[in-house]
Amino acid sequence: MSDEHTYKFNVTMSCSGCSGAINRVLGKLEGVKSYDVSLDKQEALIVAEPGLDYETVLRTIKKTGKKVNSGEADGENKSIELAD
Fold first, then answer.
1. Which of 8-17, 31-40, 48-57, 75-84 is predicted least confidently?
2. Which residue of 1, 25, 47, 77 pairs with 33 in a disulfide if CB–CB is 3.0 to 4.6 A?
3. Are 9 and 58 in contact (CB under 8 A)?
4. Which helix H or strand E contains 74, and what residues bound it?
5. Residue 6: which pLDDT band, with cuts at 50, 70 and 90?
6. How far apart are CA 50 and CA 42, in angstroms?
7. CB-based burial of residue 55 (10 Å sphere; 0-12 exposed, 13-18 middle, 19+ buried)?
8. Residue 82 lies in a domain
C-alpha cells in the first residue's frame, strides 16, 4: 500500500489568474504534500497524503469555478461528477 496518492486533473485555465486560483486553494488544502499547476498543459498534478481522497481534491478545484475536463487517481481515470 502506497503512503501517498497522485491525482491529476485536466482543468480549463485561460490565464495565470486561473492557475493562480487553483494554486491558492491547493496550498490551503490539508493533506496536500505537493502540487504543480501547469497553465501550458492545462493540468493540476497533486501528491496527497493517504487520508486525502480524490473527491475532496476535485471539489476543491471545482470551487474555483474552473471547468474540470478529466481526472485521474493513481493512474486510473476517475469520474469528475460529484454527488451533492
1. 75-84
2. 47
3. yes
4. none
5. very high
6. 25
7. middle
8. no
